[in-house]
User: Which sequence fits this backbone?
């Protein structure tokens, strides 16, 4: 297999209305409701949390069905501010609504949790232009020889003029925090550390529904803060470090859980 994998599916991003930096902390229940409703209607989604907001991605071919599903309980606007509506009853071809009474049945994937702490940083493009070297070094640095066994985690999301970075790189976070403390414009560093939880031990693909809703609902119902990241091969839930001791027993009792490392993904 080559170094580059490409998926031809096109996606539309639905931004969940945001109250500003850290908004994901207060809209977790809303996100769970949205992703659950979409899963009930057979619509596969990606979810990406950033420092500023949350995004639910649906396939272009499923967009009308997704809008028809969600417009029953939320207002949907186009980027230009115009309200968007579609005819109700639009279905995803071949989709089956899987419910048992009032409960939505989903497959719970095995989870894995390594011993690593992550930091969440927001940058604007002014920062990037002034400190391009630090960002390039973060993205492309090679681990030191004596650091080759340590786990490295990096997520980079760019929306508009904002860049959201989730990283295990202490040096980068330290530099960003110093700039923020010096009054650097457009640099925000979350005061919290985060613990990553990998979903699944196989590549999740792009067809299965209910992954986001099924894995987050148990934690959200318990009042746990969840920062969610969908990626090409798998998904991650990030849990605040100060909530980790209370979250770990929930994960152990509700999921098959590998502790100490990320599970190796198989096809």
Assistant:
């Amino acid at each position: 297999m080559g170094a580059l994998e490409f998926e031809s599916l096109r996606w539309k991003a639905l931004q969940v209305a945001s109250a500003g930096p850290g908004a994901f902390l207060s809209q977790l229940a809303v996100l769970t409701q949205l992703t659950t409703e979409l899963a009930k209607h057979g619509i596969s989604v990606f979810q990406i949390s950033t420092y500023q907001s949350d995004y639910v991605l649906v396939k272009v071919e499923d967009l009308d069905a997704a809008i028809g599903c969600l417009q029953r309980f939320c207002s949907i606007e186009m980027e230009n501010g115009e309200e968007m509506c579609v005819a109700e009853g639009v279905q995803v071809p071949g989709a089956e609504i899987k419910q048992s009474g009032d409960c939505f049945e989903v497959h719970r994937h095995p989870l894995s949790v390594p011993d690593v702490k992550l930091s969440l940083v927001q940058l604007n493009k002014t920062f990037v232009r002034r400190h391009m070297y630090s960002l390039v070094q973060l993205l492309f640095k090679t681990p030191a020889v004596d650091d080759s066994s340590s786990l490295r985690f990096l997520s980079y999301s760019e929306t508009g003029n904002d860049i959201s970075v989730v990283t295990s790189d202490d040096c980068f976070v330290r530099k960003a925090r110093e700039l923020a403390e010096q009054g650097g414009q457009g640099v925000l560093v979350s005061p919290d550390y985060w613990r990553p939880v990998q979903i699944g031990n196989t590549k999740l693909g792009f067809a299965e529904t209910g992954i986001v809703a099924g894995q987050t609902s148990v934690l959200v119902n318990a009042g746990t803060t969840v920062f969610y990241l969908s990626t090409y091969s798998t998904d991650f839930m990030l849990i605040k470090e100060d909530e980790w001791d209370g979250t770990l027993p929930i994960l152990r009792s509700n999921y098959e859980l590998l502790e100490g490392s990320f599970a190796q993904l198989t096809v």
Q: What stands out?
A: The chain has a mean pLDDT of 82.
